[in-house]
Amino acid sequence: MMKRGLPVLLLFTCTLIVGTVQSAQAQQGAMLYETKCSRCHAAFAPSDYTAEEWPGIVRSMRAQSALTADEERIITDFLVSESEQMEERSGISYKPVLGGYLYTEYFETPAAKKNFDIHYLALYASGWVSEDIYYFAEFELEHGGTGGSNTFVEQAYLDYWVKPNIAIRVGAMLAPFNRFDEFHDPISNFIVTRPQVSRELGVSAWKDVGVNIHGYFNLNADASLGFDLYTINGLGAGSNLRGSRQYRDNNEDMALGARVNLMYSDILEVGASLYQGKWDDAELYDLRMLGVHSLIRTPLADLYGEYISATSENEAPLDDGEMSGYFVQGTRLFDQKYRATVRYGALDYLDPGDQFGRDPAKGDKDLTELVFGFTYYPVPRAAFKIEYNIFGEGDRATEEDNNQIGIQIAVKF
Ligand code: HEC
User: Fold this and answer.
1) Same domain, yes or no, for 243 and 350?
2) Mutational pocket test of ligand 1: of 31, 33, 34, 41, the residue with most ligand atoms within 8 Å of the beta carbon
3) Alpha carbon distance 319, 199 (integer Å)
4) Closest Cα to atom 43, ligand 1: which residue?
5) Phi and psi at residue 368, in whole multiples of 5°?
6) 71 Cα to the center of ligand 1, angstroms
7) 384-396: pLDDT as tens digits
8) Going by C-beta distance under 8 Å and a sequence separation of 6 or more, which residues neighbour residue 316?
């Protein structure tokens, strides 16, 4: 009895002593931190920085506080352990997540051979600065990042989750219109090129600055309703709709938009989007857009389609611009390594708005596209894609030989 009891008793006493020593250390750390580090600025909360960041910060402030090596160690230990505990309690890490993607492309048509191109390099950092404030910052370099319009802040926003299911987003964001923009990265977009309707009317990738109240409601165990309600500077003053995107702010008018998505398990999503804003410098004429999208998972293939219609008011006697288009896509993954995708799309774009600097020749597009794509994934985050794109010229143009082969090598990291 004694022989067994003694080690247990000793162990218990040791634990008690170690525990007391630890909390005494923590107390000493807290006091030292308060006295040494709040002289010039209020002491930062330990949770303001991650456990990984604190040692470097304390080291950089060592001279300001004239710390001894012992004091530096005690303060660092205190901040690191408090920050770690905070992360454990809330279950989320405050460390930023870094990532990005890049792709290189090659295109060939009967009229033109395009060289290899470092088309796109995107880098992002995202994370939580508190339990309910999230940030996302994405920086992009196009065509080797030769400067000017080839260098962008793709996204830079804060999400403040005022309720577990409702957030206010402020900053530079992708406009929540239909869904394609959220899938435009080269791993999510299964085909090399983007759908014509998403390029010309959905103006992918459509970035703008504003405020978006978004969130979701769970209707039952399987169904939920997502929503976005936003105001942004809006599209304006380009040579056509696509040329009117990317942080242009030509007038005081704020555009308004909304999107709803009904989602059922992982099988079905249907959604609708609206957008309205003045797009001329003098704020006289409206641009209105309606979008519908749907994603359906079937045993045979994943189906995805989008429709967009846009109306641009013009000065009399010009008619309103009428633009519309759609695409439907079917895709299937085989053996986790190979993907076959077919897309069909049409675009009818006619806007005579030349008095606002828009170019009717540039706007006039009537075409169909039939695209066959094949992807090989050596690993899930890398893709080798090849496509064959058959263009039809539609009613207003004469048929020409402009079918295209596209190749893309893409990595997400
Ligand atoms: C002599 C004044 C002074 C003292 C003492 C001082 N600081 Fe600072 N601290 C500053 C100034 C000035 C800045 C802002 C400029 C900078 O980052 O160097 C700053 C910035 C910081 C930041 C923000 C860094 C960032 O990059 O956002 C942290 C965290 C910080 N101090 C922690 C500490 C800690 C921990 C101590 C104690 C070891 C301490 N400070 C002591 C002057 C001081």
Assistant:
1) yes
2) 41
3) 24
4) 40
5) -125, 155
6) 16
7) 999 999 998 877 7
8) none
Give 132-180 pLDDT, tens digit per residue.
899 999 988 876 555 555 567 888 999 999 988 899 999 989 999 998 8
DSSP 330: E
Q: Is 336 left (phi over 0), alpha (psi -120 to 50) or beta?
A: left
**Structural domain that includes position 354:** 97-412
| Cα 47 to ligand 1 centroid, rounded to whole Å | 15
Please name the residue that has the structure tokens 């039809």. 392
- Residue 53's pLDDT band, with cuts at 50, 70 and 90, is confident
Confidence of residue 31 (pLDDT cuts 50, 70, 90): very high
How remote is the CA of residue 39 from the centroid of ligand 1, in Å?
Answer: 10
Number of domains in the chain: 2
Do 64 and 111 lie in one domain? The reply is no
3-class DSSP assignment, residue 71: helix
E strands within 129-206? 133-142, 151-163, 166-174
Residue 355's nearest CA partner among 320, 322, 315, 323 is 315
Q: Which atom of ligand 1 is nearest to the CA of 62?
A: 38
Residue 128 and residue 86 in contact, taking contact as beta carbons nearer than 8 Å: no
- What 3-state DSSP class applies to 268? strand
Nearest residue (by CA) to ligand 1, atom 34, is: 37
Do 253 and 363 belong together in one domain? Answer: yes
Residue 235 has a pLDDT of 82
Last residue of some domain: 28, 58, 90?
90
**Are residues 156 and 42 part of one domain?**
no
| Same domain (yes/no): 134, 228 | yes
- The residue whose C-alpha atom lies closest to atom 24 belonging to ligand 1 is 57
Domain identity same for 40 and 121: no
Ligand 1 binding site (Cβ under 6 Å of any ligand atom): 36-37, 39-41, 44, 57-58, 61, 64-65, 75
Q: Which amino acid is at 106?
A: Y
Is residue 277 pLDDT above 70, yes or no? Answer: yes
